[in-house]
Design a protein that fits this description.
This protein is α+β, with helices and mostly antiparallel strands. It contains 5 helices and 6 strands, in the order H-H-E-H-H-E-E-E-E-E-H. A 6-stranded antiparallel β-sheet has the order 1-6-5-4-3-2, with helices on one face. It is elongated and about 75 Å long.
């Protein structure tokens, strides 16, 4: 290899590293903080929410929110129906079903799906899924009907839903996810680069779908 070829290769490597460094910096300092707090105010992001006490060491935390033009008692029934085999997660079910999760999102609230109590299980996939429970299930840790639902995974991570009335016919829905520490460096890398962005896209869709369903609920009755 000639000296000019070596210099060109070196310049290309330097340019590639510079681009990667730039993209990483933009994602870390702009994009990631934005999607971790999508829709939430600074006060909401910093606030203590039910379920926070269930996990001491935290790998990452997101707090997202949406304002719904409906009272909490018209939003709550949709939350109690969360789960595979119940009424889905109101997100991209076609994507979930590509992985064989057999998710079907409900368009109406059903009286038979309104009982939820601590220690109940919320499934993420069928019981005969290729990944076995408890990996594919969440446990209900706290229920305050009309206000709070706290779910926890097998690894200790939590998923909390909080309904806060801000006017007679308006509700603020907060959703907080707290991830348990991951020992493996590869595992942490996959979490930040793959799981977090995908979870954001799915959770954002869920929040917007919950908003749409709750706001049109009076028309369904």
């Amino acid at each position: 290899m000639s000296d000019s070829s070596r210099r060109l290769l070196t310049l290309r490597n330097v340019a590639t590293l510079a681009v990667l460094a730039f993209v990483t910096t933009i994602y870390r300092h702009l994009i990631r903080p934005w999607h971790l707090s999508w829709g939430a105010t600074t006060a909401e992001r910093r606030s203590s929410l039910p379920g926070d006490e269930l996990l001491d060491g935290v790998l990452a935390q997101s707090t997202r929110a949406v304002t719904i033009a409906a009272p909490p008692d018209e939003v709550w029934p949709w939350l109690t129906q969360l789960g595979q085999g119940s009424d889905g997660f109101y997100s991209y079910d076609w994507l979930e079903n590509l992985l064989g999760a057999d998710i079907h999102n409900a368009d109406r609230t059903l009286p038979d799906e309104q009982t939820l109590a601590p220690a109940d299980t919320v499934r993420l996939a069928p019981e005969d899924y290729f990944v076995s429970p408890p990996v594919t299930s969440l446990t209900v840790r706290e229920v305050d009907a009309g206000r709070v639902l706290v779910l926890q995974g097998f690894d200790g991570g939590t998923w909390t839903f909080v309904l806060e009335p801000i006017a007679a016919e308006t509700t603020r829905l907060l959703v907080r996810s707290r991830a348990a520490p991951i020992r493996s460096r590869v595992g942490r890398l996959l979490y930040f680069l793959v799981y977090e962005p995908v979870h954001f896209l799915m959770e954002r869709k869920m929040l917007l779908s919950l908003k749409a369903r709750a706001e049109r609920a009076p028309l369904d009755s």
